[in-house]
# Entry
Amino acid sequence: MIVLGLNLIHGDSSACIIKNGKILSAAEEERFTRIKHSSQFPFNAIKFCLKSNNIEIKEVNYITVNSKLSYNLFHKAFFLLKNLSASFFLKKRQI
# Structure
């Protein structure tokens, strides 16, 4: 059984390949885009994981995605509030 695991929805997006319960490879998207803590869809990380193990996407049995949206919720809320106030201040100042 081959599983493609994806880390999405927040920063540090990544992909990994697991075959019969063993991790074969894993990579973060920032390695390819050179954008620290990249939250882009991990196209490059997926390609790397598949290619480095000579696996085609049609051979993958399952694709899994992380789903714990409440993870690190306090830090996400703090970041949001901090940036909302900063953007409000900048808009107000430009007027």
